[in-house]
Amino acid sequence: MKESKTDVLIIGAGVGGLCAAAKLITKGIKVIVAESLPYVGGRFSSRDCNGFQVTTGAIMVPYGETSIFNESFDDVGVKMRVREAKGGFQYKLQKGTYTVPDKGGLFGMINFALEDEEKAKEIANLFKHAMTWMMPSDAISFKEWLMQYTDNQDLHDLFQGYIGAFIGVNAYECPTAELFRFLRDGMTRFKFGVSIHGNADLMDSLAEGVTNKGVRLSTETYCKKIIVENYRAIGAIIEKNGVEETVYADHIISNVGPNMTVELSGEEHFERSYMTLLKERQSVTPVIHLAICAREPLHDFPGIICTGGTRRLVFMESPTMTCPELAPEGWHLSNTFSVPANTTGPLRLEETIEFVKQDILDFFPKFKEAEVLLQATHHREWPAMRRWPGFPMPTKTPVENLYNVGDGCMPRGFVGIEAAAMSSKDVVEDILIRG
Ligand SMILES: Cc1cc2nc3c(=O)[nH]c(=O)nc-3n(C[C@H](O)[C@H](O)[C@H](O)COP(=O)(O)OP(=O)(O)OC[C@H]3O[C@@H](n4cnc5c(N)ncnc54)[C@H](O)[C@@H]3O)c2cc1C
Asked: Which of 183, 184, 226, 303 is the most buried (most CB within 10 A)?
């Protein structure tokens, strides 16, 4: 069997894996990345569907000076080919539409739903109180928290749409503090953009940046086993084109999710408290994605639209309004996301998709003339996020020198791509400190 030696072996070239590679290589650390798929980016890539660049997962791309994801591109001297999502945010309820202004958005949203300025001020103050004085605990859901102050259906619907679209669960499932942490930290740190030529282009450019700096990155390379001796990770067996290779490494960073990391290493190497936590925190956030193509945009707002008071639909966005490059000339691409009624129960897929289509017709009647290009159910090993928000696994594992990165270890208050990049930064800092 082939053998090699490196400082750090990274398993998986998703956002977490590639951001870790970018940070390590600029510190002069020798890195090998093994990715099982023929492409990099994982749930943040795209494929060509009849000339449309359709995402494998994420749509809103965090970027800007304070974005850690952006920082990884800067680390390897690659410019992010993203364009700011024009228009910002809009909320649609059965009774009408609210476009969020540059300032005063939270109060405006609440007042739009309540149509009662005094009550809206009271609720907006309670939000401020939670974010600046004392965060409510995660012991109750956001829906329960809000019910203490109002049972106004429109306001509950509005936050159901918001939480579904940004946090990936229902309002009755969302740990209260997680919404406030997200509003305070997660939403304010960066701008949202759209990948101009598709997500694959963006992640390919990051991969090119890291390989130009000296990372050995190999696709279609499957990690079969992480080798553990005396509670220490010492290497892994990877396979490409039927040829096995043992890679010995001082540190191993796994981007395949905490469950798969245990599977690859063998459960017997993980002490009981970690395994108990892993089993307690099994829930992922499933989402149903419809990519829709049409000659006319389905709506006239170029930003992100959250919908409330629907059966299942929570999110609509038409990236071609910002980046026409993503579709053949004269065509538009729209994406919708929907959250199942119960994110931990059976998905009841047929029913959910039927409901989603009815919701889209109700809110976006031009859907009648459109075509569904792709219908994707993201769950199990390819979910929207690998853990419920507020219930991440730690990046360190009980096996010495073995770390996890990615959205299975999201810092609280952050989600998706940015959270995956942040987990990598933490791990790299730990590796640098430990030497
Ligand atoms: C429908 C949907 C919509 C989303 N929308 C957004 C959004 O708008 N904005 C946002 O910020 N986030 C969004 N997200 C979340 C975002 O896509 C993810 O949080 C992020 O991409 C997760 O990256 P990751 O590093 O955890 O790894 P992943 O993308 O899961 O990558 C892991 C990689 O490891 C590889 N791998 C697995 N097993 C092995 C093995 N044994 N050997 C070698 N390689 C292996 C996989 O092939 C994969 O490439 C969305 C997700 C989905 C699914």
From this structure: 226
pTM for the structure as a whole? 0.97
Indicate if 247 and 354 belong to the same structural domain: no
Tens digit of pLDDT for each residue in 305-336?
A: 999 999 999 999 999 999 999 999 999 999 99
Q: Using a 6 Å CB cutoff, which residues line ligand 1?
A: 11-16, 34-37, 42-44, 57-60, 62, 222-223, 255-256, 260, 287, 289, 378, 384-385, 406-407, 416-418, 420
Reference 370, options 293, 281, 299; nearest CA is: 293
Sorted by sequence, the CB contacts under 8 Å of residue 292 that are 6+ apart come out as 298, 333, 334, 335, 336, 360, 367, 370, 371, 372, 373
**Of 382, 399, 419, the domain-final residue:** 382
Regarding whether 103 and 244 lie in a shared domain, the answer is no
Q: What is the pLDDT of residues 87-113, one digit of tens each?
A: 889 999 999 999 999 877 899 999 999
How much is the CA Rg of the chain, to the nearest whole Å? 22
Give yes or no: residues 273 and 362 share one domain: no
How far, in Å, from the CA of 41 to the mean position of ligand 1? 7
Task: Show the domain range for 231.
Answer: 2-45+54-81+197-282+390-434
